[in-house]
Design a protein that fits this description.
Helix content is about 40%, strand content about 15%. It contains eleven helices and nine strands.
Length: about 290
C-alpha cells in the first residue's frame, strides 16, 4: 500500500512539473549540447547525480558517509558560480519520455523526495548541463543514439594526455577502447570508500602531474571537491563518474544492468593475475 501511495504521489508531482503547473526554474541542456560544449571549449565539468543530491540532505551513500561539511560543500558547488566549470544535473524536469520504464519510475521517485533540494540550491541564473552525458546507455528507450554520443565523447580526449583518478575496483577503459584515442594514460588509484578523507593526498598527487594533463575523475562524491580544486588550480578536469560502466553495457548491448568482471579485481597481485599489465604500468600512485 505504501509503495502504491508513493507511486501515485510521484506521478502527480511529475505531471505538475511536465505541465508547468509547479514552478520550474531549472533549465538543463541535453546530452548532445553537453558533449558539444566540452568538445568546442576547454571547460571543466563536475557532475551531480542522485547520490550527490541526497547527500546534500544528509543521507549516507554506499561508498561515502554523509557529514554537514560534505553537504554544505556539495551545495556550494551545485550553486554553479564559474563560467568555465560547468555543472551537470539530471535532465528530468521537462520530460522522461525518452527513458525506459524503470528509469522513468526511478527519477519520478527521486524528484518526489528531492525537488526542494534542487529548487533551493540550483542557481536560477544558470543553465545546467546533463548528468546523463556519462550515464547515456542504461536510461534510454532508444539506445541507437549511443553510437553518436560515444563517438563524440571519445573525441574530447583525442590526442590528449589524460590522468584517470579512480577507485581500486573501477578500471576505467580496461578491456574496452573508451580511452584508446588518448595520447597517453596515467592513473591515480584512490580508496574505494570514504575517499573524501583522502582528498588532500589525491590532490597533491594530481598537482605533481604535467600541466597539460586532462584529468578524468571517477571517485564518487570526492570527485566534486577534487574537480573544484583542480579547476581553481588552472587544470582542466572532467568528472566522468560511471561512464566506463555505461560504455561496457553499451559495447555488450546489455538489456539491463549487469556486473562487470573487472570490478572484482583488487590489488596489484590480482590485477597481474588477470593480465592487466598495461593498467598496472599506467599507475603512478596507489593512495
Amino acid at each position: 500500500m505504501k509503495r502504491r501511495i508513493k507511486d501515485i504521489l510521484a506521478a502527480l508531482v511529475y505531471f505538475l512539473y511536465e505541465k508547468g503547473i509547479l514552478h520550474n526554474r531549472i533549465r538543463v541542456y541535453d546530452i548532445d549540447e553537453t558533449i558539444d560544449e566540452l568538445l568546442r571549449t576547454e571547460k571543466s565539468m563536475v557532475r551531480f547525480g542522485d547520490g550527490e543530491i541526497v547527500m546534500i540532505k544528509g543521507v549516507d551513500l554506499m561508498l561515502q558517509k554523509a557529514s554537514p561539511e560534505i553537504g554544505a560543500g556539495l551545495a556550494d558547488i551545485l550553486a554553479y558560480t564559474h563560467d568555465d566549470l560547468i555543472v551537470t544535473i539530471p535532465d528530468i524536469f521537462t520530460t522522461l519520455s525518452d527513458h525506459r520504464r524503470e528509469s522513468r519510475q526511478f527519477w519520478k521517485d527521486h524528484l518526489l523526495f528531492c525537488r526542494k533540494t534542487y529548487e533551493k540550491y540550483c542557481n536560477p541564473d544558470r543553465v545546467y548541463y546533463s548528468t546523463f552525458v556519462s550515464r547515456c546507455y542504461y536510461f534510454g528507450q532508444d539506445r541507437s543514439r549511443c553510437d553518436r554520443w560515444f563517438a563524440k565523447i571519445r573525441k574530447i580526449w583525442e590526442n590528449k594526455n589524460i590522468v584517470i583518478v579512480e577507485g581500486t575496483r573501477t578500471h576505467n577503459g580496461v578491456g574496452n577502447d573508451l580511452f584508446d584515442s588518448a595520447a597517453g594514460i596515467e592513473r591515480i588509484i584512490c580508496p574505494p570508500k570514504d575517499a573524501y578523507a583522502a582528498i588532500p593526498e589525491i590532490l597533491d598527487e594530481c598537482m605533481r602531474c604535467g600541466g597539460d594533463r586532462l584529468f578524468l575523475l571517477s571517485v564518487g562524491v570526492a570527485a566534486k571537491f577534487l574537480a573544484a580544486s583542480l579547476f581553481d588550480a588552472g587544470r582542466r578536469v572532467l568528472d566522468i563518474g560511471n561512464m566506463d560502466m555505461e560504455y561496457e553495457w553499451y559495447v555488450r548491448k546489455a538489456s539491463g544492468k549487469i556486473p562487470l568482471e573487472k570490478h572484482d579485481i583488487v590489488g596489484e597481485e590480482a590485477n597481474r593475475a588477470a593480465g592487466y599489465h598495461e593498467y598496472l604500468a599506467q599507475i603512478r600512485a596507489w593512495l
